[in-house]
Amino acid sequence: MSERAAPFYCPYCGDEDLRPGEQGGAWECAACNRAFQLKFLGLLARGLQRHDSGGEQT
Question: Which comes out higher in pLDDT, residue 7 or 47?
C-alpha cells in the first residue's frame, strides 16, 4: 500500500493534533479522543461540469 497524504485537521473538532492510529489507515485525534479513517470512494459519474458566469459570449 502506498503512503497517502495526512489530514490537516480532525473532521469532528477541527484540531490539528492528529497521529496515525494502530489500525492501518486510521487517524487518532488527541483533542477529542476520536479515531477515524478517510476513504476515497471514486469519481462521480457526471464528472466535472463547467459553469458559465455572467453569460458573456466572445
Answer: 7
Query: Exposed, middle or buried: residue 34 (CB in 10 Å: 0-12, 13-18, 19+)?
Result: middle
Dihedral sign from CA coordinates of 33, 28, 7, 44:
negative
Residue recorded with cell 478517510: 38
pTM, whole model, 2 decimals?
A: 0.63
Residue type, 10: C
* Cell 503512503 found at: 3
Q: Nine-digit cell at 35?
A: 479515531
The torsion angles phi and psi of 2, rounded to 5 degrees, stand at: -85, 155
